[in-house]
Amino acid sequence: MAEPATLDLQQVARRFGSRVAVAEFSLQVSPGSVHLIVGPNGSGKSTVARLAVGLLRPHGGQVRVFGNDPRGAPSARSRLGYLGHQTLLYGDLTPVENLAFSARLHGLDRLAERIEASLDSVGVGGERVVQVRRLSRGMTQRVAIARSLLHQPDLIVWDEPLTGLDQPSVTRVVDLLEQHRARGASVVVISHDLAELWRPNVAVHIVHQGRLQETMATSMPLPEFRARYSELAP
After folding, report:
1. I need a surface site. Which of 72, 190, 226, 228 has the fewest CB within 10 A?
2. What is the CA radius of gyration of the chain?
3. Which phi and psi angles does 170 have, rounded to 5°?
4. Count of other CB atoms within 10 angstroms of residue 25
5. From its phi and psi, is residue 160 left (phi > 0), alpha (psi between -120 and 50) or beta?
6. From edge to edge, which strands make up the β-sheet containing 19-29?
7. What is the pLDDT of residues 187-220, one digit of tens each?
8. Residue 199 to residue 187: CA distance in whole angstroms
9. What crossing angle do the helices spanning 137-149 and 95-105 adopt, rounded to 10°?
10. Could you write out the DSSP letters of every residue in 160-204?
11. pTM score, whole prediction
């Protein structure tokens, strides 16, 4: 029996009151693949991400993560690594304490070892014992990224992960993403940072007014893609 898609969105729709945020959106993510979702502000990208991980209920169509509806399948949600606009960190806890809490929720063992490795991977040093509310925006983002990857998820869904990061941190995080792809994780990233994420073998999806307009690949030169993007999402 064939393994189900890591993520399968079929004709998904979502409204907020009378406003249609996402309409008839379909996307299939296979194991080990990387997908970049781009579009203007307000085009529905973040709504797609929240639908994908079960934080929103679709008003039409269906969402499946490893063959299950993520809203009713804890086993599927446990294989997700999500980073949204909110860090999901507790400000009065340190990075170490935040990751320890997350690790316990996932039932992980070797907590100290895992936490140290995860924070090292994003370049968090002495800041790991400082309350998160005292950290800079960029450092907080690094901790949030570490939290999302701590349990080695099989599906990574990131919404604007490079926000607030300096260039060395951007390079570190993009390389880290490549490492997770190499171990077989599927990746969906929403970002405006095209130049940083224009890596080989990435599917790029243009979203405008809640609809998927076109899918291309990073084999296309970035300037050519930008020109096409301007046509589809003016």
Report:
1. 72
2. 18
3. -60, -45
4. 27
5. left
6. 19-29, 7-16, 60-65
7. 999 998 899 999 999 999 999 999 999 999 999 9
8. 13
9. 20
10. STTTT--HHHHHHHHHHHHHHHHTT-EEEEE-S-HHHH--TTEEE
11. 0.94
